[in-house]
Write a structure and sequence with these properties.
Helix content: 40-55%
Number of strands: 7
GO biological process, one term: rRNA base methylation
Number of helices: 15
Protein name: Ribosomal RNA small subunit methyltransferase H
Shape: globular
Organism: Cellulomonas chitinilytica
GO molecular function: rRNA (cytosine-N4-)-methyltransferase activity
Family: Belongs to the methyltransferase superfamily. RsmH family.
CATH class of the largest domain: Alpha Beta
Oligomer: single chain
Length: 333
């Protein structure tokens, strides 16, 4: 494994992210949280573009933190790495003594590091252990999911998280196969998926394992549940004038981000009131018009930007008390 994180990772839509964050990060002493540090490409871009900014980088993957830490060491104490999941943002900032931040950046989904490290089991292109944990030191593996979940629950995960048309058939075949021997390798699962999906669909529907691998990864890492907590928690850490930029790579993620931004950018007053009470006025302003996609130049430079959907919002006032959820970073009991 090479330690050169810069050569292994091209950050998606970096310049666009910098442009969107610039108004919020212009002030002296500005702080940004990179909630999904990965190999540090976006953070390096921010630290170079804004010499006065401090970045707190969160990642649940110790390997990513180690690689990014080496990459970003030249920036000294302007960069603070933290081993944490991004729904813990409020707790992390409280521990660091930071009351509010001027920027939050979230680059969702599986990282380049995780895709490229064969033994992590994220890729369906090479045989590896069925793992898929973003934090390889803790939690449920994909092998445990496919070998212990009942058929109905497997089908639900594949249908909801993978948007897989043949979820019921695949779940049935998984249960049948594991009765003979546990499924422990990605190659075994890919062969099963190829046999489960009709030949006509395989010709036009992309790789037959893509949707199932996405679904298992989301289940193993609790990605959507974490994101549901993380977006509102991140908004609550923003100072007035602060901005949040989120890059999502599939519709389920983007829907959660869109919903959270819309809630903040829409009046909470009943529609029939003649005058909007100040306490019900929006507390966010949408900075992007819908979700932005990569242009041809970005696609040529970085093929992994193909499915990106970027959204940004700016805090324009504090969140009204009646719109606040749980305290940022704190999970419900």
């Amino acid at each position: 494994m090479t330690d050169d994180a810069a050569s292994r990772h091209t950050p998606v839509l970096l310049q666009r992210c910098l442009d969107l964050l610039e108004p919020a990060l212009a002030a002296e002493g500005a702080v940004m949280v990179d909630s999904t540090l990965g190999m540090g490409g976006h953070t390096e871009g921010v630290l170079r573009a804004f010499p006065h900014v401090r970045v707190v980088g969160l990642d649940r993957d110790p390997q990513a933190l180690e690689l990014a830490g080496r990459r970003l060491a030249p920036f000294g104490d302007r960069f603070t790495p933290v081993h944490a999941i991004y729904d813990e943002i409020g707790d992390v900032l409280a521990r660091l003594g930071i009351a509010q931040v001027q920027g939050v950046l979230m680059d969702l989904g599986v990282s380049s590091l995780q895709l490229d490290e064969v033994d992590r089991g994220f890729s369906y292109a090479q045989d590896a252990p069925l793992d898929m944990r973003m934090d390889a030191t803790a939690g449920l593996t994909a092998a445990e999911v496919v070998n212990t979940y009942d058929e109905r629950e497997l089908a639900r995960i594949l249908r909801v998280y993978g948007e897989e048309r043949f979820a019921a058939r695949i779940a049935r075949n998984i249960v049948r196969a594991r009765a003979a021997a546990p499924l422990t390798r990605t190659g075994e699962l890919v062969d099963l998926l190829r046999a489960s999906i009709p030949a006509a669909t395989r010709k036009t529907g992309g790789h037959p394992a893509k949707r199932t691998f996405q679904a298992l990864r989301i289940e193993v890492n609790g990605e959507l549940e974490v994101l549901e907590r993380a977006v509102p928690a991140s908004i609550e850490t923003l100072a007035v004038g602060g901005r949040i930029v989120v890059e999502a790579y599939q519709s389920l993620e983007d829907r959660i981000v869109k919903r959270a931004f819309a809630a903040g950018a829409t009046s909470s007053a009943p529609p029939d009131l003649p005058v909007e009470p100040e306490t019900h006025a929006p507390y966010l302003r949408l900075v992007t018009r819908g979700a932005e996609e990569a242009d041809e130049a970005e696609l040529a430079r970085n093929p992994r930007s193909q499915s990106v959907r970027l959204r940004a919002a700016e805090r324009i006032r504090p969140t009204p008390d009646h719109m606040r959820g749980p305290q940022p970073g704190r999970r419900a009991a």
